[in-house]
Design a protein that fits this description.
Strand order of the largest sheet: 1-4
Structural class: mainly alpha
Distance between the termini: 65 Å
Number of strands: 4
Strand content: under 5%
Shape: globular
Number of helices: 19
Length: 435
């Protein structure tokens, strides 16, 4: 252990690292319940998604622990799975197999980019306010999905949306769960989101929202993962390029932000702000994404919940290895996680949305060429029900405002290229009609 993880150099012990790994798992294990629920909305078998989620998390987190020696866990990313299911499949009309293909190609590109240090260069070229706004917009989008899943927000033909029936059924159970989970978070209870999901699932039994089948057994051999369910016939379309870029874009900033935040909290970041073994860490993320797509789940990314394990003293890859082992154990408890109704995961979705709002306090609101694109990005994501559309209009507005106001030097070459792709995306339907 000492030779592999350098425990003494990091002033930690095996016991501390294992406890930190357990804590990290407790705070992020909700993904095992939430991810199958989100991706099944796209028509994917929930059992297969559960298996893919557990295995992809196990593989990526294990690689992070062994090659980067960082206390960071990975799993299919929230927001990225929502984009996969609700934007690519349900809104854009692509098959989930095509969406998996985009994730797979993204992962391969990430491996190459990590090996040649391109990801760091791209991060520097994207407007800072847009980066922050993406996290906030996804947070609002996720919270909106949670409210819809529980029936708290319902369809209204006159106003598009309105308050649902909140005095009974799933909406009431979800609101009870939201209060329960909020209280746990306020008291800084470890694993508040997971405990909240479990508690809300139990609350749902007398309300008839949680249905326990006769002869139910929490232990079961896992379903087969959705191996190599790829579809390559649309990879040269503009829509596919936009989807691929969105996966790339969101995952890049999700991972970089998490790495910076967690390593800073752990006291591991260098004097000049450099992340230790950042190349290996980004490679672990890329390997996890490729493995996840091959197994049948959306993009794998680093989890900010890893900070909970760091708060418990985790400083090395042993924390991550411990978390990966627990994902392996959870693999054989699929009936337990698949029993969870949407009303029970809704509070977690809503509050994860809250967690993703933190970058809003760092937005530059004094410069309107910065503030307006950030605002458009945040606003369009939940209201268009599309992360991609939020990015399209946010970046295009950034380019237009900077160019028109004489601040064109702020626009990088990469941003111009991305803007060109987005313009093509917008005009392509018109061109198709004319042709």
């Amino acid at each position: 252990m000492e030779k592999l993880f350098q425990l003494k150099a990091h002033n930690t012990t095996v016991k501390t690292e294992i406890m930190a790994g357990i804590t990290t798992f407790m705070t992020m294990a909700y993904i095992l319940a939430v991810n199958p629920g989100i991706l099944s909305a796209a028509g994917m078998p929930a059992g297969g998604v559960f298996t893919a989620t557990a295995l992809a998390s196990l593989i990526a987190t294990l690689v992070m622990g062994l090659i980067a020696n960082l206390p960071i866990a990975l799993a299919p990313g929230m927001g990225l799975n929502a984009f996969f299911a609700f934007s690519v499949v349900l809104t854009m009309g692509y098959s989930w197999q095509m969406a998996l293909t985009a994730v797979f190609i993204e992962g391969i590109i990430f491996i190459l980019m990590s090996l040649f240090n391109i990801r760091e260069a791209i991060v520097k070229s994207i407007p800072a306010n847009i980066k922050k706004a993406v996290s906030v917009g996804i947070g609002l989008f996720i919270a909106f999905i949670g409210l819809q899943n529980a029936g708290i927000i319902a369809n209204n033909d006159a106003t598009l949306v309105s308050l649902g029936t909140v005095t009974q059924g799933p909406a009431l159970v979800a609101l009870i769960g939201l209060v329960l989970t909020g209280v746990l978070l306020a008291f800084k209870v470890k694993g508040a989101l997971l405990i909240g999901i479990i508690g809300t699932t139990i609350v749902g039994i007398p309300f008839g929202v949680t249905t326990v089948p006769k002869g139910w057994n929490p232990f079961q051999m896992p379903d087969a993962p959705l191996l190599f369910q790829f579809q390559f016939d649309k990879i040269f379309t503009i829509d596919f390029v936009v989807v691929l870029f969105t996966f790339l874009f969101v995952d890049i900033f999700d991972t970089i932000g998490t790495l910076v935040g967690v390593t800073t909290q752990a006291g591991l970041i260098g004097k000049n702000g450099e992340i230790p073994k950042v190349k290996q860490a980004l490679l672990a993320d890329a390997i996890g994404t490729v493995a996840g797509a091959a197994l049948g789940t959306s993009t794998v990314t680093s989890y900010i919940e890893s900070a909970s394990g760091v708060a418990e003293g985790g400083r090395t890859g042993l924390t991550a290895v411990t978390t990966s082992v627990l994902f392996g154990i959870a693999l054989f408890l699929s009936p337990l996680f698949l029993l969870v109704p949407g009303a029970a995961t809704a509070p977690a979705l809503i509050l994860v949305g809250l967690f993703m709002l933190s970058p809003v306090k760092d937005l530059d609101l004094g410069d309107f060429t910065e503030a307006i694109p950030a605002f458009i990005t945040m606003l369009f994501m939940p209201l268009t029900y599309s992360i991609a559309d939020g990015l399209v209009f946010g970046i295009l507005s950034y380019i237009l405002l900077k160019a028109i106001t004489g601040k064109g030097k702020d626009i990088t070459v990469v941003t111009w290229v991305v803007g060109l792709f987005f313009v093509l995306k917008l005009v392509m339907p018109l061109l198709q009609k004319l042709l």
